[in-house]
Amino acid sequence: MHLIEADRHQLDKKLKSYHFDAVVDGTAHVAKDIIDLYEALGSFDEYILISSSAVYPETTVQLYKGDSFLGKNKYWGKYGTDKIEAEKSLLERVPNAYILRPPYLYGPMNNVYWETFVFDCARFDRPFYIPNNGNMKLQFFHVEDLCRLIEQIISLHPKDHIINVGNDERISVKEWVSMCYACLGKTVEFVNVEKDIEQRNYFSFYDYEYYLDVNKQKKLLKNTVPMKIGLQSA
């Protein structure tokens, strides 16, 4: 392994002499991120962009599919529209690129305060404030499953190039928090919070329930890490 450490916007000719079997881009958020990296690359076989399910507007009919309408989502705002522009910029330059759209990613080294927030509450034996009755459902995807899927794409070169990724089944907020507490050997005490309080003031996720169709992913990855096991590794 050879480390090339650089700013993607100031690569100059650092990459021009290399051929890459695959470029796996997990940090492109805006079109300029794509443009600057693409123009700095030498040759490559595959380009795989980790995009986001935030590209689907909340008004679109669910299940969200890879060919569903893209547009501004009121919960994700500019983050989602920037991802749309990044995808567009990539496909203009690499028409056969692969674009993966995950829901909530979780697992080791997660830099977003999701499951870690619940673990911290459990660690200090705090009750957990839960939105309404806790039945809102969330869709997750373990980072190790994401890596395994990328390996499959590089090996098999599937015909599907826009792929929603995630666990096939969603999980309720209540079940998910209970599993997080159980990872620390704790039993959670829930406090229900009514809708007149802004959810993000006390909970990690927006008051937004959505569902990705992951049938294209399942052609490549038959099984995903069970949530109970995945949380234990987080």
Kindly describe this structure.
Helix 3 packs across helix 5 (about 175-185). The protein has seven helices and ten strands. With about 230 residues, the protein is α/β, with parallel strands linked by helices. The protein is globular, with a radius of gyration of 19 Å. The strands form four sheets. It has a four-stranded parallel β-sheet with strand order 1-2-3-8.
Strand content: 15-25%
The portion of residues assigned to helices is: 25-40%
Along the chain, the helix and strand elements come as EHEHEEHEEEHEEHEHH
Q: Summarize the biggest pleated sheet.
A: 4 strands, parallel
Q: Indicate the overall shape.
A: globular
Termini separation: 26 Å
Rg, rounded, reads: 19 Å
Tally of DSSP helical segments: 7
Structure in a nutshell:
The chain is of the alpha/beta class.
Give the topology, please.
Elements (H helix, E strand, L loop, with lengths): L18 E7 L5 H10 L2 E8 L27 H16 L4 E4 L2 E3 L8 H9 L4 E4 L5 E2 L1 E3 H14 L5 E3 L6 E2 H11 L6 E4 L21 H4 L8 H6 L2
Parallel strand pairs: 1-2, 2-3, 3-8, 4-7, 5-10
Antiparallel strand pairs: 6-9
Characteristics:
234 residues, alpha/beta, four-stranded parallel β-sheet, two-stranded parallel ribbon, 10 strands, globular
